[in-house]
């Protein structure tokens, strides 16, 4: 197999997908390609993925490579060669067998991750999951103590312009199954009109469905300029010491933002903010809620998420998987039965209504006269 294409490259896959085009080759540095990254690359209809890190390290069964395989997007792991030093964006490369060429000169040795190899590597990862789970639990408990202010209420939560008290709040993260879940609850959004909070790229997820975020919460590293400009309010997630690298981007767009220093993830502080401001109900879409989700996000524990969910308790509904619960197949026979059911009251009216019976007899006489019967 020979693959040719122009290179788009970035250390961060989520940054790369915002500018890569159809038919180009993605050069990334992404250990354990996750589900969200893989789906984003598939959506761009790229020619191939060249990964300078192991696409499956064996730590845990990550979902990304399987998704790329299923979509017929070839994946190559670099075994020898430093592409980020050798290549420049936009250059034309060729992948042939286990070699990568630029201007007919071999610059790297690669290995294709076929479906069989992916399956074999995932089997190894499944065997390692128990060890990884042990480390994950230890880290979660250790950091839970450090981040206990989420529960004790010592965290200073900023004032916001968006009115939340007494309303439903929809917190959208661009995580697993977010498209399916958003599609499933479209009627809920239309009827209830909840406050819409996008967590970083979750803001763009809302835009995909024609919805304008009332608020964006995050460190601003995976959201488009378009979404930031359209959003009604911006909350920049800062480090606990107050440093907020994302604010620079907001100011470069001549926009205003509110800094929220806090430990934990941006989705955690979005839910905590909604709870603190008096939300009647918090509905989470695409949120990270299990160990695999967090390992794919690159985190070694879920202390803040554990603590936040303990605090907001009964006000939180997780929409993850709702689409699977309510998914149904609408077949043609259902339409036939629907039509027949609708005809039943019509037939009853025809049988008992004297004016309609007279009209039918009149029409019958007219037809016989016309036919000369």
Automatic annotation (TrEMBL):
Residue intervals passing through the bilayer: 335-356
Molecular function (Gene Ontology), one example: kinase activity
Thiamin pyrophosphokinase catalytic domain mapped to chain residues: 193-237
Coiled-coil intervals: none
Keywords: ATP-binding, Kinase, Membrane, Nucleotide-binding, Transferase, Transmembrane, Transmembrane helix
InterPro entries linked: Put_SteA-like, SteA-like_C, TPK_catalytic, TPK_catalytic_sf
Domain of life where this protein originates: Bacteria
BP GO annotations: thiamine diphosphate biosynthetic process
Domain SteA-like C-terminal: 320-371
Cross-referenced NCBIfam families: division_SteA (NF040608)
Protein name: Thiamin pyrophosphokinase, catalytic region
Natural source organism: Alkaliphilus metalliredigens (strain QYMF)
Species lineage: Bacteria, Bacillati, Bacillota, Clostridia, Peptostreptococcales
């Amino acid at each position: 197999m020979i693959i040719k294409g122009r290179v788009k490259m970035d250390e961060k896959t989520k940054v790369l997908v915002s500018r890569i085009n159809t038919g180009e080759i993605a050069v990334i540095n992404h250990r354990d390609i996750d589900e969200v990254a893989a789906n984003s690359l598939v959506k761009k209809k790229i020619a191939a993925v060249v990964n300078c890190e192991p696409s499956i390290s064996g730590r845990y069964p990550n979902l990304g490579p399987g998704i790329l395989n299923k979509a017929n997007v070839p994946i190559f792991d670099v075994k020898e060669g430093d592409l980020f030093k050798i290549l420049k964006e936009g250059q034309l490369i060729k992948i042939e067998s286990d070699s990568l060429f630029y201007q007919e000169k071999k610059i790297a040795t690669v290995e294709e991750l076929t479906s069989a190899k992916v399956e074999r590597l995932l089997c190894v990862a499944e065997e390692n999951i128990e060890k990884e789970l042990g480390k994950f639990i230890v880290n979660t408990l250790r950091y839970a103590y450090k981040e206990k202010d989420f529960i004790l209420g010592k965290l200073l939560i900023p004032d916001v312009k968006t009115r939340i008290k007494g309303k439903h709040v929809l917190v959208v993260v661009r995580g697993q199954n977010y498209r399916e879940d958003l599609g499933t609850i479209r009627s809920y959004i239309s009827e209830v009109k909840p406050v819409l909070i996008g967590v970083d790229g979750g803001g763009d997820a809302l835009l995909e469905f024609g919805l304008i975020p009332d608020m964006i919460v995050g460190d601003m590293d995976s959201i488009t300029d378009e979404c930031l400009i359209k959003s009604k309010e911006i909350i920049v997630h800062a480090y606990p010491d107050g440093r907020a690298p994302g604010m620079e981007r907001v100011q470069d767009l001549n926009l205003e933002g509110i800094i929220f220093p806090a430990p934990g993830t941006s989705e955690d502080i979005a839910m905590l903010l909604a709870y603190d401001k008096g939300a009647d109900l918090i509905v989470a879409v695409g949120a990270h809620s299990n160990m695999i989700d967090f390992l794919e996000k690159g985190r070694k524990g879920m202390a803040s998420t554990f603590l936040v969910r303990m605090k907001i308790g009964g006000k939180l509904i997780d929409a993850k998987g709702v689409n699977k619960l309510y998914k149904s197949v609408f077949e043609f026979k259902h339409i036939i039965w629907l039509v027949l059911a609708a005809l039943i009251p019509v037939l009853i009216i025809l049988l008992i209504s004297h004016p309609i019976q007279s009209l039918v007899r009149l029409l019958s006489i007219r037809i016989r006269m016309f036919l000369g019967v």
